[in-house]
Amino acid sequence: MEGLPIQPACPAPLAVAAWNFLGGLEWGGVEVAAEMFGVQDVDLWLHELAVIRDHGNRGST
């Protein structure tokens, strides 16, 4: 197994899945996506979505 690249687990798989499903942080679909993905902690999940959004905007300013 030596020499194989190590891929860390995604820290926020529900947020990434929702981001891809919604096509970004689409407020109109957040409630439906939270229900579909079985999100338990909506505040944390929204924070994770915002981090994904902000990560994509890092070099644009």
Description of the structure:
- There is one protein chain.
- The protein is mostly helical and 61 residues long.
- It has three helices and no strands.
- Helix 1 packs across helix 2 and helix 1 crosses helix 3.
How many individual β-strands? 0
Major β-sheet profile: none
Give the low-pLDDT segments: none
Shape: globular
What's the order of the H and E elements?
HHH
Supply the helix-strand structural class: mainly alpha
Share of helix among residues? 40-55%
Strand content: under 5%
Radius of gyration (Å) = 14 Å
Total number of helices: 3
Give the integer mean of the pLDDT values: 84
How far from one another are the termini? 41 Å
Compact summary:
Helix content is 54%, strand content 0%.
Topology diagram in text:
Blueprint: H1 13-22, H2 30-37, H3 42-56
Give the key terms.
54% helix, 61 residues, mainly alpha
